[in-house]
Design brief:
Largest sheet: 4 strands, parallel
CATH architecture: Alpha-Beta Barrel
Number of domains: 1
Helix content: 40-55%
Number of helices: 9
Strand order of the largest sheet: 3-2-1-8
Strand content: 5-15%
Oligomer: single chain
């Protein structure tokens, strides 16, 4: 059973990893994803406008659960929370991120791929692990193997996840969701083709639902 502040992960089996280069794209992109059935959104800190994008979506798209990804320092952690992020995702885990999560009561999805790293995440009290980069770290077979010694943890694989292998991941009992960016192709975003984004989001949700129903 997930703690209350981690229940948001159950909102969608697919979490888009959003790299926003122009803040004007943030709100329409978020609205298109929500219209397609994806309401948990991760905005990565890979661009200069990321904080502004988080703030804009948090204010203009209240039905979305907006979070921040690629958070690597406590300064970034506090910055994204101040901007309106309701959860934080990191490619790894550190003492300062753990402390920031506890200080703010903001849920953290820390990254880990080895047994030692996963053990550290569990010992710190986190119920969900971001498995990144998934495709080069053993993929679904590795996550399945980790389910033995770490049966009480859930995983969110990200990195190399797409329509061709989403079923392989979501079929695992210890995978609670997947992260990816295939439903927000850069060319569609740059053209403002939000209809395509909405359609791809809906297809991703339907694909994930069909796996869970099998």
């Amino acid at each position: 059973m997930l703690p209350d502040n981690y229940q948001f992960v159950l909102r969608s089996p697919v979490i888009p990893v959003m790299v926003i280069n122009d803040v004007s794209e943030a709100v329409p992109m978020a609205k298109a994803l929500v219209a397609g059935g994806i309401t948990t959104l991760e905005i990565t800190l890979r661009t200069e406008c990321a904080l502004e994008a988080i703030r804009s979506i948090a204010e203009a798209v209240p039905e979305a659960m907006v979070g921040a990804g690629t958070v690597c320092t406590d300064q970034q952690f506090h910055g994204v929370v101040a901007a309106g992020a309701r959860f934080v995702v990191s490619p790894g885990c550190s003492d300062e991120l753990i402390a920031a999560s506890r200080d703010t009561s903001t849920p953290l999805l820390p990254g880990a791929v080895t047994a030692t790293e996963v053990m550290a995440v569990r010992n710190a009290g986190f119920p969900i692990v971001k498995f990144f980069p998934a495709s080069t770290s053993g993929g679904a077979p590795a996550i399945k193997a980790l389910g033995g010694p770490f049966h009480d943890l859930k995983f969110i694989p990200t990195g190399g996840v797409g329509p061709s292998n989403i079923g392989e991941y979501l079929a695992l009992s210890n995978v609670i969701a997947v992260g990816g960016s295939w439903m927000i192709p850069a060319d569609a975003c740059s053209k403002g083709d939000w209809t395509t984004i909405e359609q791809l989001a809906r297809e991703a949700v339907n694909l994930a639902s069909s796996v869970n129903a099998a």
